[in-house]
Structures are given as C-alpha cells and as structure tokens.
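Entry 12.
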Amino acid sequence: MNKKKKKNKTVFIYIGIIVLLLVGIVVINNLEPDNALYGKPSSELNPATRELLKDENYQNIILPAALDEKVENKEDFIVYMFSSTCIYCKQTTPQIMPIVNELGVEMHQFNVLEFPEYQTKYNVEFTPTLIYFEDGVEKERIVGGVTVEGSNQGSSLEEFRAFFEKYKG
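Predicted 3D structure (tokens):
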C-alpha cells in the first residue's frame, strides 16, 4: 500500500511540473514586446508588414490614433497611404524617399493593410496614395505610384517632387 501511495505522489509531482512548464511557456509567449512602429506585437502583423519593419524606407509610420488626432487638431500634414503587399508601393517608396529626405519633408506613412477601415475612411481606392491635409481637411492627393516606362498610370518623379515642394511647409 505504501509503494502505491509513493508511486501516485510521484506521478502527481511529474504532472505538476509539466503543468508549470506549460504555463511558463504560455506566459513567456505572451510577453512579446509591442513593435515600436505599429504598437502591437510583431506576431499580430501581416507577414508582408513584418518584412518591412527594418526597411529604412518605411520608418515614419503613423498609427490611427495619431492620424485622427492630426485631423481633429486641424493640422497641415502629408500622409502616404500604402499597403505592405502592394507592388506599386514597393516600387514607388524607394524612389520618392530620397526626394522626401532631400527636401526635409515630414511624410507620415500609413499602412492600410494593417488598418483596412482607413481605406474607406479616407477613400483610398488604390495604393500608394499620397494625401496633403490642410487644416485637417484633404486638399490634394496623388493616386498611384511612380509611372513605369510604357504605362500611362501613376505620376512621374517630377510630379511627386512638385507635390512635396508645394506642401513641404
């Protein structure tokens, strides 16, 4: 009888250890820090967005609350609506960022893939879309990326430059 009790105690001890280890794993997995750009754990981001996290061309991300605040405060600002899965965005962003940097333009980047309700809110049918807000109200936009040779869609780099020069503040 004593051996049976000892054996049962040992089984319960092993089960307890396994339960504690499992609880520990769950706790550690939930401690993933929020991503600095998006304010939520990287595991919650679309895989295409995770690929852009270290891309120097996508480091001025604006989050929904900050965008809403700028509009409510009637600020003047430029926002670049993009999707991390958009091939035109991936072609356009590295071409316009040198212009943005050269002119010292504050261009906020908003990822509509992560916050799709804002596509409707700001009537963004295509990405990329570059919007200038004056006093919190949209004044002008450029829809589409940099024109690809042989295509009549999008805008030239010169048109992007003129937009930035016009609204750089």
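Annotation: The CA atoms of residues 51 and 84 lie 8 Å apart. The chain is about 45% helix and 15% strand.
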